[in-house]
Design brief:
Chain B: Its main location: mitochondrion. The complex is a heterodimer of chains A (about 425) and B (about 130). Chain A has about 425 residues and is of the alpha+beta class. Chain A is built from twelve helices and ten strands. In chain A, helix 1 packs antiparallel against helix 2, helix 2 runs parallel beside helix 5 and helix 6 packs antiparallel against helix 7. A four-stranded mixed sheet of chain B has the order 3-2-1-4. Chain B contains three helices and four strands. Classes of the chains: A alpha+beta (about 425), B alpha+beta (about 130). Chains A and B meet through helix 2 of A and helix 2 of B.
Amino acid sequence: TGSGPRTAMAVAWRAAPRVAARLLLGRRGIASCIDPSTGLTEDQKEFQKVALDFAAKEMSPYMAEWDEKEIFPVEMMRKAAQLGFGGIYVKPDVGGSGLSRLDTSIIFEALSTGCASTTAYMSIHNMCVWMIDTFGNEEQRRRFCPSLCSMERFASYCLTEPGSGSDAASLLTSAQRKGDSYILNGSKAFISGGGDTDVYVVMCRTGGPGPKGISCLVLEKGTPGLSFGKKEKKVGWNSQPTRAVIFEDCVVPVGNRLGAEGQGFSIAMQGLNGGRINIASCSLGAAHASVLLAQEHLTVRKQFGEPLANNQYLQFRLAEMATRLLAARLMVRNAARALQDGREDAAVLCSMAKLFATDECFGICNQALQMHGGYGYLKDYAVQQFVRDIRVHQILEGTNEVMRMIVARNLLQG
Amino acid sequence: QAIDDDCNQTGQLLAAMLDWPQGTFASRVQLEDGAVRVEREVDGGLETLRLRLPAVLTADLRLNEPRYATLPNIMKAKKKPLEVIPAADLGVPGELPRLRVLQVQEPPARAGGEKVENVAALVEKLRHCGRI
């Protein structure tokens, strides 16, 4: 193979499905140190296989197009929902798959190898359905969950506002009780899926200041007074639209409130524990795919008369990337286990896992891009999209700075 | 091909016992009126047969794209009952198994080749060992 631009482009386009294929092959024969199926049960290996298969065939070939054209891949996600990916840890009686947090992490990690951005949206959707499933009453569960699990309808999570990001408890969107309804006023920022989704899980203030005054309301698109800002132009996550969500005297029935008044913040925080594991899992998938892309490139590309893979510096770099990937994966899976077992330290472990995995995996994808040389900077190559897509994982679901706050508090206030 | 002995004989045996036509290694199947057109993957390429129905077909992996397993189905699979039916209950006569493995051996190790001086010598050698 030559190494001119045309051959390189051909390699890039062909590389994406081949990477995913190698993720499958690696598990069947050659023992790879970063094989994501090690230590899993037979069932988990089956879930992973389906997710990797799906990612390779239904996502990987399209991730570049979705990014470039900013397409929200509704049809693909509905196909995924048919396999059970729309409500992975939601109870089966309302259409969910009833799987554990660890199963969920494995699945999102696998799907992310096909497209990190879309998988991240799917994880947000899953979190919203779980919230309704867990904190909603029977009527609410039956009203919302089935159509969300099948992704006939899509969900968005609304916590962040222009004036409150990390300081989430200071949110201002107000919900004034009036008879059988709440009148909602305010706005939310950076809402994933905003404007294109159907169901909005909104944290708003029904009581006094601080976390105890916050409640959780569910709104549907089409509610009078509900409007959206312009579609944001982002560095990555382009397969999901991001918009501000604006409430102007929206009338929301009291029957749309999840849990009790004042329970909203607790619901939000519990949702975020799982959300952090899921986002971290998306970073893991992207990093794994990037390591394989780098590995491929090192064997194919020659300089100074030899494949790059003969260069000890690059060998060492690749080894470091693999080591960090495995460490990150173990942290995420450890946190998932703690959460599903209801352990006391689950929340702080989720924060540590999110912090570590999103930071390390971004570094891994970035390294992989560097190893590609100039080609790594071209959009013909998947690696730059993984870098751009997972960069934001260090920011949302709680910034990595907030993650440090949570860990420090655990260490110093215990 | 059976997953235990890999013998590739069940479909063929069945067709012979039923005296039905057979289309094995099918990579493409088209139903027609009272017949089926079967494209087969054979060593030399593709062979198309037209078989009167009823017929016995065996599938090659190129016949279709398997569906994805759904998560609920994967979980149900573990709980599916595995029913063991004694052969006698199905009216299979005689003692089973009917095949006894006598010996399993590796093929002979590949011996080194031989270099010859010229084309004439090559032709003579090939003639000598009965290849031409």
